[in-house]
Amino acid sequence: MRNIIPYGRQFIDKFDINEVSKILKKDFITQGAVVERFEKKFANKVGSKYAIAVSSCSAGLHLSCLIYSKRKFKNIVTSPITFASTANAIFHSGKKPIFCDINSQDANISPAKLKLTLKNKNIGGVIPVHFAGNTCDMKTIKNICKKKNIFIIEDAAHALGSQYDCGSMVGSCKYSDITVFSMHPLKSITTGEGGMITTNSWSIYKKLKALRSHGIEKTNNSMKPWWYSMKYPGFHYRITDFQCALGISQLTKLRTFTKKREDIARRYIHLLKNTKNINLLISKIPKIKKSYHLFVLKIDFKKIKLTKTKLMNRLKKRGIGTQVHYIPVPKLKFYKTLGYNMKNLKNAQEFYNQAVSIPIFFQLKKNSQLKIIKEIKKIIKS
Ligand SMILES: Cc1ncc(COP(=O)(O)O)c(C=O)c1O
Questions:
Q1: Could you say which of 3.60.110.10, 3.90.1150.10, 3.40.50.2300, 2.40.50.140 is the CATH number of the domain covering 254-381?
Q2: Dihedral of CA 262/263/268/271: which sign?
Q3: Ligand 1 centre from 87 Cα, in Å?
Q4: DSSP letter string over 337-364?
Q5: What's the rounded Cα separation, in Å, for the pair 326 and 27?
Q6: pLDDT tens digit string along 118-170?
Q7: For a Cys staple, 159 with which of 62, 85, 130, 169, CB 3.0–4.6 Å?
Q8: Which ligand 1 atom is the nearest neighbour of the CA of 187?
Q9: What angle do CA 88, 295, 194 make, to 5 degrees?
Q10: Contact yes or no for 271/58 (Cβ under 8 A)
Q11: For ligand 1, is residue 357 a contact (CB within 6 Å)?
């Protein structure tokens, strides 16, 4: 089969491989000193006080929701345009996800709709998702939530390298209590699988650290040096030293990675200028800096008289991989069975009808980009 240009892929160089190899030759390959070193460097990079590395962003979101699970509220609000694990984290913490509609321009949760949603008194928290690396309007979201004492966990799976309009990096928790990142291979940097949680709260940090490792905390007990305490049952959501060695090495390239994605996006924007029936995501806040995790086309399939399936299949035949981000979560069987629907989520439904993600990753060549856009234009005109 001929090579397909994927919609995303990791970039790992010989320096990354060398750093991982060094750890694999050591005595401690799991929870050694490298995890902590990575956490410190990550916190430093995004401007948070603390960082906790975990096995995935999904694990990080789960633990973050558990921080608040003893509070008496019933619901946590999130976006319908996200990966299932955002909603699943809420569900696994014993609360109910409520989906709030998005803005059509940037596919992020709409602050105006959030204000209406929060009229429901049983909401304890909000998880805004920085879709494709476009930061949500966090200033407004924070103002809305502050008045009601509602916590904020940012799902920043897509947004390592993104900045708010004030210049602070996503992860600094300037507008939130907790931020969670993914380091899955397609994300801004990778540790294979992996996640990172950031916070500025010492008590949240301490609790997350214990929850990551069975709820166990080491005690200094000279009478019983083997002793540890466990106040509540936690999980095994740890990450390894050799993954974190990869993470440290990848983090040194974050600026280069982001710059390359910006160049790729700029070229796509130029090539697609004035293309009928194709729109792009537009940030509601002009001054933000985006990670460009995804490059999403919003295609008016009704006007071009073609289905999304046909377009994606035709591109595949021409060696171009595409994907849809995301099937709105309320449409997934589990949530549908619980009674969720798209009734109040018109923008999310419209976005889902139109969205197709095209390739964006560090090694994507200019020629490939030209080919991708040429083929898309050819297909939609035919
Ligand atoms: C928005 C969003 N949240 C959470 C996740 C889960 O990340 P992970 O695969 O690291 O668990 C993803 C994964 O793609 C995602 O896109």
A1: 3.90.1150.10
A2: positive
A3: 11
A4: HTT--STT-HHHHHHHHHEEEE---TT-
A5: 42
A6: 998 899 999 999 999 999 999 999 999 999 999 999 999 999 999 999 999 99
A7: 130
A8: 14
A9: 40
A10: no
A11: no
Could you say which of 3.30.420.40, 3.30.420.10, 3.40.50.2000, 3.40.640.10 is the CATH number of the domain covering 14-251? 3.40.640.10
Distance 85 CA to ligand 1 centre (A): 6
Using alpha carbons, select from 204, 131, 194, 134 the residue that is nearest to residue 162: 134
Written as one letter, the residue type at 225 is: P
120 Ramachandran zone, left/alpha/beta (phi>0; psi -120 to 50): beta
CB 185 within 8 A of CB 9: yes
Q: The tokens of 299 are what?
A: 């295609």
Q: Write out the two tokens for 50.
A: 């603390």
- 382 pLDDT band, cuts 50/70/90, is low
pTM of the entire structure? 0.97
C-alpha 46/C-alpha 250 separation (Å) is 14
Integer angstrom CA distances of residue 195 from 2, 18, 51, 276, 326:
33, 22, 10, 39, 20
